[in-house]
Amino acid sequence: MTDDLGLRERKKLATRQALCDAALKLALAEGVTTLTPERIAEKVHVSPRTFRNYFSSKEEAIVAGLQDRAQQVAENLRRRPADEPIWESLRAVLVPSLDTGMPGPDLRHLLGLIRCHHALLAEHLTSFEALSRQMAEVIAERTGTDVNRDIYPRLLADVSGIALKASLGLWATGTTGRGLGDIFGEALDLLSRGLPRPAVAPEHSADTGPPAT
Amino acid sequence: MTDDLGLRERKKLATRQALCDAALKLALAEGVTTLTPERIAEKVHVSPRTFRNYFSSKEEAIVAGLQDRAQQVAENLRRRPADEPIWESLRAVLVPSLDTGMPGPDLRHLLGLIRCHHALLAEHLTSFEALSRQMAEVIAERTGTDVNRDIYPRLLADVSGIALKASLGLWATGTTGRGLGDIFGEALDLLSRGLPRPAVAPEHSADTGPPAT
DNA sequence: GGAAAACTTGCACGTTCGGAAAAAAGACGT
DNA sequence: ACGTCTTTTTTCCGAACGTGCAAGTTTTCC
Hints:
Two copies of one chain form a homodimer.
Chain A: H1 7-30, H2 37-44, H3 48-54, H4 58-79, H5 86-97, H6 104-116, H7 118-143, H8 152-173, H9 180-192
Chain A binds a DNA duplex (30 and 30 nucleotides) through residues 6-8, 11-12, 36-37, 46-50, 52-53, 56-57.
Protein name (chains A, B): TetR family transcriptional regulator
Keywords (chains A, B): DNA-binding, Transcription, Transcription regulation
Pfam families (chains A, B): TetR_C_14 (PF17754), TetR_N (PF00440)
């Protein structure tokens, strides 16, 4: 990971990581509104001015972790074999992305903050949008379509994004006892079948989750 | 429309409308970065502080028109007969929403601005998100599902949103000679069929659009 | 070792944001 | 029509934010 990077590059990465870790930790601990860039900078022992060199707002720093992960998803998709069916490629890169490396309760808490805080939500959504654009390009390349002539790649990219978003949203409520991967699998299935109208009353759809894999 | 509202209410609505009209017009004319809240307020003959009472940023004012339209979509959906198939209800409210009441070139221009400007994009996306949340609730009600237990209503609401977003995005490029309604119809069709992989090379998929209905 | 490049930092300036209270305008009862 | 109450608009103002610049420090490269 930290392979052939010079000392300078590694340090930059390290402070960036430290900053967004601190931002996230403080946001979870004390909320977003009372949190100031100064405090974040202080915790990492850099000047407030340096914080601004990395992030243009506290909100950007807080969601930077998720955003970085989104970037990885796009890159991972690029790395999949070109002849793999596109839905399989998507599943292969999206499912692992569900593991954010954060403890579950913290992730729920963070999603709650994002949901309520306008600026945080905006930042989060733009990162999703950026991911979609990149994925649309890869999808177009893999399926022989054209981003600027066909609707298909945009739709498939966006659909992948909302599968993630909707699954996270439902999981974050905590009202279903199901795991995130389980919910996400169902979402992909439903989407790939064109969202058929549910029988009538799913009643206990949460019962004994179907094996995702 | 302006029925049983007192003079005070009507005036409020009027200034709000005037403000977001002015914001949009100025943004289209001179760009977003150089535009200041002062100028917008000045054009409507109110103080800058009043502008802030209505909108918390110039970006919010610029996209307020689209946002209001999104609100209407949600309300129109609520008004559809409860026994109508949900896909038909969605089509019935979304298709008319394509007519933004703006001249085509202006709309393209605006979408271009939104696409490039981070703050504008963020504002625009949050309005889409707000729309999705409302639509998810209505969809849940109509289909006998539960927003907090089933993934279905969230997915269907989000899918409707991206059908709009992707169609607008493709149409705005102007590289297909097709109409917005045409593109949107194809998007809904594809989505309702689970985004089947396109044959292989659509080659000239833009040719003589397929009859949507 | 030393020059060049990059990063950090403090300072300063203009802008933005939002609260508080006075002034203006509408609503309402008599 | 008048006075009073409520709501909106406005002025004033201080705090926070964002950004450019130049000096100081660290890393890189020769």
